[in-house]
Amino acid sequence: MRTSATVACVDFPCGDVVHDLYVVPDLELDPELIDLVMVSEAAPSSPRDWFYAGSDALFAQTTVQAFRDAGEDVSTLSDVLDLGVYLTTAVKCGKTGYGISTQTVKRCSGLLEVELGLFPSASVLLLMGDVAIKAVNAIARRNGEPRVIPSGPTYKLRGGEYSFRGMKVFPSYLQAGPAFFIEKRKREMIAEDIAAALAYVRARYSR
């Protein structure tokens, strides 16, 4: 399966993102091998920093380091993928400013919903930051489902029991981008959440 063949925006209705920076994972993979889906915020401001753009890509570097912080013996993004992890963003275009409007998150959540549906074997959903949390809540509300993550600061929500369409959900902080190297305490919490998510996946296999 190639993700980009199924997940595609056709009319680009959003006005507060850069459409030229639109990107979805262009990967050939077996969806049955994906155990964990990690959803970050938005596409990077430079295509060179996209998760799958190579070892020098910023998103790849910070994500690999996040998994290393969590105790995983990984050196490249391919190593992370080999753990059964699929990486994507809630918003498929790059930002024009610091924030992203609620309307854009809602609109783009339609693409994320299609994308999540490609991985029926995934048992864990890691939501990295407020935009990812808002996007999954938008999917749930649009379909008449209960809110996945309640409102409140992430540090109070972490460790709670949340689920979405058969997946255990972990709300966390954004691991993709330069802020990852600056905010030490958030980096520690990201590592804790990744470790907990992987432990949950592995416990399912050991039953």
Major sheet: order of its strands? 1-3-2-4-6-5
Strand content: 15-25%
Note the total helix count.
6
Q: CATH topology, which one?
A: Uracil-DNA Glycosylase, subunit E
* Unreliable residue runs: none
In sequence order, what are the helices and strands, one letter per element? EEHHEHEHHEEH
Gap from first CA to last CA: 29 Å
The CATH C-level name is Alpha Beta
Q: Provide the structure class.
A: alpha/beta
Number of domains: 1
The residue-averaged pLDDT reads 95
Helix content: 25-40%
CATH superfamily (homologous) name? Uracil-DNA glycosylase-like domain
State the CATH architecture: 3-Layer(aba) Sandwich
Total number of beta strands: 6
Alpha-carbon Rg, integer: 16 Å
- Approximate shape: globular
SSE order and pairing:
Blueprint: E1 17-18, E2 36-43, H1 58-69, H2 77-82, E3 85-95, H3 102-116, E4 124-128, H4 130-142, H5 154-157, E5 163-164, E6 167-172, H6 184-206
Parallel strand pairs: 2-3, 2-4, 4-6
Antiparallel strand pairs: 1-3, 5-6
Helix pairs in contact: 1-6, 3-4
Summarize the structure.
The chain has helices at 58-69, 77-82, 102-116, 130-142, 154-157, 184-206, and strands at 17-18, 36-43, 85-95, 124-128, 163-164, 167-172. The chain is an alpha/beta fold and 207 residues long.
Question: What does this entry look like structurally?
Answer:
This protein is of the alpha/beta class and about 210 residues long. It has a single domain (about 5-205), classed as Uracil-DNA Glycosylase, subunit E. Helix content is about 35%, strand content about 15%. The protein is built from six helices and six strands. It has a six-stranded mixed β-sheet with strand order 1-3-2-4-6-5. Strand 5 (about 165) and strand 6 (about 165-170) form a beta hairpin. Helix 1 crosses helix 6 and helix 3 packs across helix 4. The longest helix has 23 residues, at about 185-205. The chain is globular. The two termini are about 30 Å apart.
